[in-house]
């Protein structure tokens, strides 16, 4: 079955999502932003976003080892910084909300690692990549052939 090419039929949706993505990325280190995007995309099984953001992360200098173990970051020891660990925990909690949303423990860890402004941006980045993932999953957007 052929699915909707949503960005062609609704270009204003794409424009709005790009505006949200740009706003969410302010004041977040680009490397951390890519880790957030990749981790949510792993959970959501978004091949298009995984392809894009792993390439972007490598261009920014994120190492292969960090990318290789990102799905198991909590077990990866000191490969990830405390800020990265806090952002990844929050990203996972936002991506898989469950019955009780984001726990106080996860929120407190992130609140301790980031300023209020940065925390807002990390939350917005996790929310935004989840929106991209869900749009792409709904219409089965494949990664481009290279």
Report on this structure.
The protein has 146 residues and is mainly α. It has one domain (11-139): Up-down Bundle (AhpD-like). It is built from 8 helices and no strands. It has helices spanning 6-9, 11-25, 30-44, 47-59, 64-68, 82-95, 104-113, 116-139. α3 runs parallel beside α6, α3 runs parallel beside α8 and α6 (82-95) runs antiparallel to α7 (104-113). The protein is globular, with a radius of gyration of 15 Å. Residues 11-92 form the Carboxymuconolactone decarboxylase-like domain. InterPro entries: AhpD-like (IPR029032), AhpD_core (IPR004675), CMD-like (IPR003779).
Question: Could you write a compact summary of the structure shown?
Answer:
This protein is mainly alpha-helical and 146 residues long. The protein has helices at residues 6-9, 11-25, 30-44, 47-59, 64-68, 82-95, 104-113, 116-139. It contains eight helices and no strands.
Largest sheet: none
Given this structure, which CATH class is correct? Answer: Mainly Alpha
Helix content: 55-70%
**Overall strand count:** 0
Shape: globular
List segments where confidence is low: pLDDT < 50 over at least 5 consecutive residues: none
Task: Please tell me the CATH architecture by its name.
Answer: Up-down Bundle
Q: Tell me the β content.
A: under 5%
Classified in CATH, the superfamily is: AhpD-like
How many separate helices?
Answer: 8
Structural class: mainly alpha
**C-alpha Rg (nearest Å):** 15 Å
What is CATH's topology name?
A: AhpD-like
How many domains make up the 3D coordinates?
1
> What is the helix/strand order?
HHHHHHHH
* Average pLDDT for all residues: 95
Cα end-to-end separation? 24 Å
């Amino acid at each position: 079955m052929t699915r909707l090419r949503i960005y062609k039929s609704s270009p204003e949706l794409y424009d709005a999502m790009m505006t949200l993505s740009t706003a969410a990325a302010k004041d977040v280190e680009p490397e951390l932003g890519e880790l957030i995007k990749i981790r949510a995309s792993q959970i959501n099984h978004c091949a298009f976003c995984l392809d894009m953001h792993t390439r972007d992360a490598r261009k920014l200098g994120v190492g292969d080892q960090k990318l290789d173990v990102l799905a198991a970051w909590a077990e990866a020891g000191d490969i990830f910084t405390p800020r990265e660990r806090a952002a990844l925990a929050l990203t996972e909690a936002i991506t898989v909300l469950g019955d009780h949303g984001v726990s106080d423990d996860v929120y407190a860890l992130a609140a301790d690692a980031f300023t209020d402004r940065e925390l807002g941006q990390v939350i917005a980045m996790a929310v935004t990549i989840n929106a991209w993932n869900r749009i792409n999953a709904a219409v089965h957007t494949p990664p481009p052939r290279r």
